[in-house]
Structure prediction request, 767 residues.
Amino acid sequence: MNANASGCMEKDESKHLVTDIVAKHKNSKGALIPILHEVQGLYGYLPIEAQEVIAKEMNVPISEVFGVISFYSFFSLNPKGKHQVSICMGTACYVKGSGPILDKLKETLAIGVGETTADGEFTLEDCRCLGACGLAPVLTINGKVFGRLTKEDIPEIIEGCKTEGGIIQ
Amino acid sequence: MQLFRSHVLVCGGTGCTSSNSEAIMTELNENLAKNQLDNEVKVVQTGCFGLCEEGPIMVIYPEGTMYCRVDVKDVPEIVEEHLLKGRLVTRLLEASSQLQEDNQDIEQSSFFKKQLRVALRNCGRINPEEIDEYIAFDGYKALAKALTDMSPAEVIQTIKDSGLRGRGGGGFPTGTKWDFAAQQVNDEKYVCCNADEGDPGAFMDRSVLEGDPHSVIEAMTIAGYAIGATHGFVYVRAEYPIAVHRLQIAIDQAREYGLLGDNILDTGFKFDLEIRLGAGAFVCGEETALMTSIEGKRGEPRVRPPFPAVKGLWQKPTILNNVETFANIPVILLKGSEWFASMGTEKSKGTKVFAVGGKINNTGLVEIPMGTTLREVVYEIGGGIPNGKKFKAAQTGGPSGGCIPASHIDTPIDYESLIELGAMMGSGGLIVMDEDTCMVDIAKFFLEFTVDESCGKCTPCRLGTRRMKDILEKITLGKGVMSDIDELETLARDIKASSLCALGQTAPNPVLSTLLYFRDEYEAHIRDKKCPAGSCKALLAYEIIEENCKSCGLCAKNCPVSAITGNKKEKIPFVIDPILCVKCGVCFEKCPFEAIKK
Prediction:
């Protein structure tokens, strides 16, 4: 997935990768969003340097690129932690108690929603319905699904990420 | 073609994949090979069976035996017992009490008996990644019929006669929409599919795309023929990776078979499709916002008219239909409009798929004829409420909808009757709530959602919904005053009347509908500072019931703020100091004698 999720990829060196992505889509109509998806796939987020390249190659003002990025919650301007913990806040999960589970996550990780731990290990997010309502309440860590949760499961799940060979996919 | 004596179907929907159905398939194939059964038994990955609660699901044909909550560890036993020796693994049947009695015929189980699968006809029956399996179940036959035997006008007339209405929530007659676009004279037109399923708790469209992607491709091609378009877009949520993956496979296969492209079925008709990924903006489910987003811009809605059928994508005539609407099209053309119109109620024809979730035993995907009552859905198909709790209300239509209280549980479900109740059909999310769900909190939950998702273009929605949310927050914190209710009602009316798009126009609905049926709960929060459902934390007061207390001291031991005192040795009942109590609820959870009330 993320070629370099920690965001340390040398942005100058990888400039040509962004140029290539733009070139691939440039001739199709409404190309900006597919380009942003692909560039985010490359870095794990959309660094300002990449936005500059996209704007230049597409011949649009950078404000337009930034405007689109900031509109959509899927696009991120900041690098994310090694483990992205997303708790589902869909109605089915909410009714089955994802609220208290989120509180427990905040307590365990000592961060708020949308924040990353100082060591860069965890990012906590609440997300829209994942559609795994049969397993409600659910959370995902880097895409791996944990279902039928209770508050008590949280510390163990988080510990599991810290052990060697834990999650990161 | 190779023949097999048995087919083992394993669910590959998102729910079952999340509980490891892929590992089950791998294990199955290994075990079959080990027992030299791989030439006799075929493993097929299918789309969603609907009974997500009991996943991962496995169905073995020709018997039609359904195994529930299958674990990788169970696989050797299934192979040995069922496939080798022909004996049932009863342990796995019993996982669902509903399915016990007639376990050999899943169609007759209480979950499936009242269902009628039209849009979901192939989900859980075919491998969605094999175009041949779709074709074997009459796939692309409707397209062939339309292209060779029917004029575009005849196609539109058939859809009109069927009475099919938009399944995305609006309920606009599909045939009429197509007709508007067909009448436009323009050399460039578009067909779009709305798969930006944003309502929390709704996963019907995802299941269709995952389980039967070709039905959508076929229908969009038919729509292209009917209105005179040569290009189409499917706008899918980026949160649905499996659906996107299978849809792309399906598009590639259709191209390879000449069912998409320049000369479809050698008729000279030209049509092609592209997938566009959403990027997590709920408002993009609104038709004009969706089109702006496909154009690569911020997904903000615009004023209608002009309607998309006149000026849509890139200012060209465009039709936009929802996934489930499209899934109905091929079968209507094949079986005829009369057949379709024979199902349902007077004004709502056919069937509707619902994603049933929340406080219900059988969470999952159900398709019922319009006019089925809510009671049948909740108690017969859904298997009732867990833990013997009471049904309080069902919420339909997500953040745009409303709730149906227990007193209206016998209402037949169709577009009109739900609107009459102040709810709406919506795209098909149906969340069941029991006595522990606080309706003010639910209203607040939906308003938080809309505040988050309002695009900000128009003021009533941007500021009005935030103001409503603030008031609801105040009420749930026990700081409300009675005039707040009036203010909520005034705001709701104004936001509905003056918002630019459907997001704002419908955002106050959850508040209005809960106020209509559960006004007493609002009043209890404000006047009595109590949450009747015992869910709003700020309004809870934990108390130990003296006569039930056995002085075990477990509550005091677990209390994080030492707010509980008593004496274990001298058997003095424990008490909670309400001033110190932080209402964390640990004592309530830990007490083995149910001696703590809230």
The first helix of chain B runs from residue 14 to 18. The two ends of chain B are 66 Å apart (CA to CA).
